[in-house]
Amino acid sequence: MKRNYIILLAALLTVACAGNGDTMSPTPQEGEILFSGSTVGPKVRTSYEDTETALRVNWVKNDLIGLFAESGGKNLGANFAYKAAVSGATSDFTAASRLNVIRWADETSDHDFYACYPYTDRAAVDVTAIPVSVPAVQTRSESDPLATLAAHDFLYAVTCGIKKGDNAVNLQFKHLFSALEIRLTTDLRAKLEGVIFRCVSNENAAVSMENATVDLRTGEVNVSEAVVSNAVRLDCSGNTSDTEALVLHLVVTPGHAGETFEAVALVNGKEYIFATVKAPSDGGIPAGKTVVVEGEATLDPEDALPVIDLSADGTANTYYVNAANTFYRFRADVKGNGKALTCGDLSYTEEDLKIEPKAALVLWYNCLQTSYLPWIQASPVVLNSVKLKKDGYIHFDTPETFVNGNVVIVAIDKELNYDQIEADADNRILNAEVLWSWNIVFSEGYDPDAAENCIVKGGYTWMNRDLGALIDPEQAYIGGQLNNVALASTTGNCYQWGRKDPFPGLPDYTSVQVSYMTGLWFAPAYTPIPALDRGTFEAWGREAHHQIIGNTKATVAIDINTALGTGYVSQDAFDLGRANPHLWLYKNENYLTDKAGLAAWGNPSKDAHGVKTIYDPCPPGWKVMSSQAWIALTDNETPDAVVATTMRGILLDNKWYFPLTGGAQHVRNSDGGSNGYTGSCGVEVCTAYYMDGPDYSPWGRVGAFKAAPNYKEGDSVTCQSQNTYSDRGASVRCIRTVSYTHLRAHET
């Protein structure tokens, strides 16, 4: 147990019971008494939080109450049913039947009135013995969590000494019982089966009772003939968390001054005590109030729900997720692959790689598009589930319906939420530092490590997709027709050479020549951080809302010379990119300046494989391909490859797909120029891939499949490797680093 609180709230319960039809009230008859009903209890602030409570009494039209009336020892009505005229906190009540109407005895005598809710015909005529119960087992409704309170609440009113008058008799209802509000957290996520509130200091305490009676004159409960229990159990379902309390409500009897209670969570058939509390010695648990019990249960690991550890086989900057309604986590205490390295002039220790974040936020997300009228805005991750937890991992859930897309999650050095983030005019975060960021690729059913999703050639193994691609080309057929917008999701993300940070891919393919696009630089990327929301961008009449990446150089890039000065070194550029993973580093030439920059992706000497650095964008077990791997893939740049016009791509060996994305010379140019049209590499249409080893400082290295500008189905493809400025953009196709077996589920 980490926290134990019992808090008294002066809150009122919600009444929500159905009536007996919606009929008009008749005109009162001669001598008929009019009644109005309201609840008593002031609005007060809680001792736990400085807000007014939200639990209130509201009558529902046609709710039935039972009415008793006496005058001078004469019975004027015994358990007559009266119904609410309107819905609200106060309502007039009229006789439900014209055969049972309460009338004044005379003009001078005192009249006494007693009422109860809900109406029951079991009450008969005895005002001193109205049946009441607090069930020992209550059930939570998933659709209406407060329904338990309404189902078991009991209200009564006493109004005495009233003489005949023209005004309605006001019945001020009080609650006979108390509400219990459970706020439960657990150290591990678990499926909750129920909770128990039990008196441990007195096994005879009547915390629940069946078939008791209450005297409406006094409000005293008689349990002499009742079945009582020292506990109340609430059967329910729901997933617990260690960051957000699961809130549950049930009804208990009041009183029990000075008694000790324990609150118990039921998980996997086991009882876990999460709070021990003591009722106030002065009056105990008050009627008509809400008692809050808050605590955290420490669970046995075997009783926790399975959480897939994406970093179980090694940390990385990208992880793949493929299942809906599933819980995931990854280590957030280390940069990249977390391994010390000396590679050329790039060097860092394990101590250099440690980070201590205070919070995790979704920076941006995108999703598979099927139409740009309008663009779809759906998050692949349940946004409020993304949490940095005490175990040093970032946890998140996928929604019940899977959403294909990319998500970038940042770890920051301050405990700030989305609304607290501040940014400057360049969209740089002001009041927190981004310590690291990760790209989560959500692709339903896709496992990059499965043999069927790998290209094996020349001693190397490649992914069959570009990094960040959401679907295979055959999945772009929707309703039997090729969807050009969906087809763009085969292209993957765009990267600057030497950076781990993804930028969204193409917005759509609208023509065979890949030249007529939506007018957007990138596929829509949405941010839940208000300060980074650049608003709405309209291109060719197609609006994209809540965008973090703009549609001009000024809204995409940050001038690195302005930000760092002209004398900066590559490590400065690494740090600037790390702190601003959503901003392009613009220099219109090579943004990395020295030999440390040459080793950004671990292969300054262009070895066969190279090594994986902390800046490598590929997932665990994979890295940016080497020049030698490119040569092997392309048969020394003489590939057996043809153009697949319909699919807007290149088919290698008549089976492996490489989408036409352009590369270093397309609209993602850091200077804002397009240099032709999307998909071009100079004058040809191409797809370009960054490699891990540049030829010399400060160039990046690319390999490209190229086709003529007027290409057609089946055309042959030329291929070459070349240098390009490192601040330009291109795709990444990962190769396997070592023999790697991916474990699909790691339970915690």
Question: What report would you give on this structure?
Answer:
- The chain has about 750 residues and is mainly beta.
- The protein contains seven helices and 49 strands.
- It folds into two domains: about 5-300, Immunoglobulin-like (Sandwich), CATH 2.60.40; about 310-735, no CATH class.
- About 5% of the residues lie in helices and about 35% in strands.
- It has a seven-stranded mixed barrel with strand order 2-5-4-3-6-9-10. A five-stranded mixed sheet has the order 8-16-12-18-19, with no helix packed on it.
- A hairpin with a 6-residue loop joins strand 9 (about 155-160) and strand 10 (about 170-175).
Please summarize what this structure is.
The chain is mainly beta. It has seven helices and 49 strands.
Layout of helices and strands, plus pairs?
Layout: E1 4-9, E2 35-39, E3 64-71, E4 74-84, E5 91-95, E6 111-117, E7 130-134, E8 137-139, H1 147-152, E9 155-162, E10 169-175, E11 178-186, E12 191-199, E13 208-215, E14 220-222, E15 227-229, E16 231-239, E17 246-252, E18 260-267, E19 270-278, E20 290-297, E21 308-309, E22 318-321, E23 327-331, E24 341-343, E25 346-348, E26 359-365, E27 387-388, E28 393-397, E29 405-412, E30 434-442, E31 454-457, E32 460-463, E33 477-478, E34 481-482, H2 484-487, E35 495-496, E36 537-539, E37 542-544, H3 553-556, E38 557-559, H4 560-564, H5 570-579, E39 584-586, H6 595-598, E40 622-624, H7 627-633, E41 641-644, E42 649-652, E43 656-659, E44 680-681, E45 684-690, E46 700-707, E47 718-724, E48 729-730, E49 734-736
Parallel strand pairs: 2-10, 8-16, 11-20, 21-23, 22-30, 38-39
Antiparallel strand pairs: 1-20, 2-5, 3-4, 3-6, 4-5, 6-9, 7-13, 9-10, 11-17, 12-16, 12-18, 13-14, 13-15, 18-19, 23-28, 24-25, 26-29, 27-28, 29-30, 31-32, 33-34, 35-48, 36-37, 40-49, 41-42, 42-43, 44-45, 45-46, 46-47
